[in-house]
Amino acid sequence: MSTSAISLGSQDQTPPQPHELLALFGGTFDPIHYGHLRPVEQLANEIHLDKVVLIPNNVPPHRPQPEASSAQRLAMLQLAIEGNPLFSIDQRELRRDTPSYTIETLETLRKEYGHAVPLAFIIGQDSLLSLHKWHRWEALLNFCHLVVMGRPGYAQELETPALQRWLDAHKVDDAGLLRQQPQGFIYLANTPLLDISATQIRQRRHAGDDCANFLPSSVERYIESQGLYRR
Ligand code: ATP
């Protein structure tokens, strides 16, 4: 396995140049799948990203614990991005033994990269819909832009008129604006809609079904070799 694309933490990352848009993509990745990879690759074309940093989380605050261990989820990420220079991995949340809150990760990243670098945090539509339940969610836009990828089966409108007004107040249609200021905008991307979730993959595995169309074969082989998602 090549380790060239894998960052072991902040000290291994080359700081982005001014006006380079650094994209961050957090998730549980239990496991990583094409619903993560394909839309993000398209997004990189759409808004001209050179780098996407995957940030696997440790103890997700709002969810049951992952079935795969942190080491296994990391190994699957490494296999999934092998040979793809778009992606790197930041392990800072995995190293924590307390819940990893996105806002706290963003605070540490801002300190490292400084205040001028535009940061974009990528989320799926389902995450946008539940964003108001995230720890200190209203402060997120003080540290980053939000870039939202559509996801089939999820509502377009936010839960309340007040939340929808918040979205409308920050939404921009021109992705170029994401480079004009370091944080504060929300961009709804035109990425392809893929009906794939980690839940669905775990359920298929539990039922003994194959997952060839849902994730890279190297990841599927790893899952098989580790006997993951079988209980
Ligand atoms: P689970 O089914 O276990 O909840 P998941 O498939 O949603 O997992 P996560 O690791 O929780 O995967 O997701 C990380 C991020 O990727 C979230 O912001 C989520 O909205 C986004 N995401 C996941 N799957 C898709 C998809 N098919 N299309 C667009 N975004 C997605």
Tell me what the structure shows:
The protein has 231 residues and is of the alpha/beta class. Helix 2 runs antiparallel to helix 7. It has a single domain, classed as 3-Layer(aba) Sandwich (Rossmann fold). The N terminus is likely disordered. The chain has a seven-stranded parallel sheet. The chain has seven helices and seven strands. The chain is globular and about 45 Å long. The structure holds adenosine-5'-triphosphate. Adenosine-5'-triphosphate binds next to helix 1, strand 4, helix 4 and helix 6.
Count of helical stretches: 7
Quote the CATH topology.
Answer: Rossmann fold
Secondary structure: helix percent: 25-40%
In sequence order, what are the helices and strands, one letter per element?
Answer: EHEHEHEHEHEEHH
Largest sheet: 7 strands, parallel
Counting helices, strands and paired strands, the structural category is alpha/beta
Beta-strand content bin: 5-15%
* Number of structural domains: 1
Q: Over the alpha carbons, how many angstroms does the gyration radius reach?
A: 17 Å
Give the low-confidence spans.
Answer: 1-12
Any idea what the shape is?
globular
Any idea what the CATH architecture is? 3-Layer(aba) Sandwich
CATH class: Alpha Beta
Assign the CATH superfamily: HUPs
Cα distance, first to last residue? 28 Å
- Strands side by side in the biggest sheet: 3-2-1-4-5-7-6
The overall strand count is 7
pLDDT averaged residue by residue: 91
Ions, cofactors and other ligands present here are: adenosine-5'-triphosphate
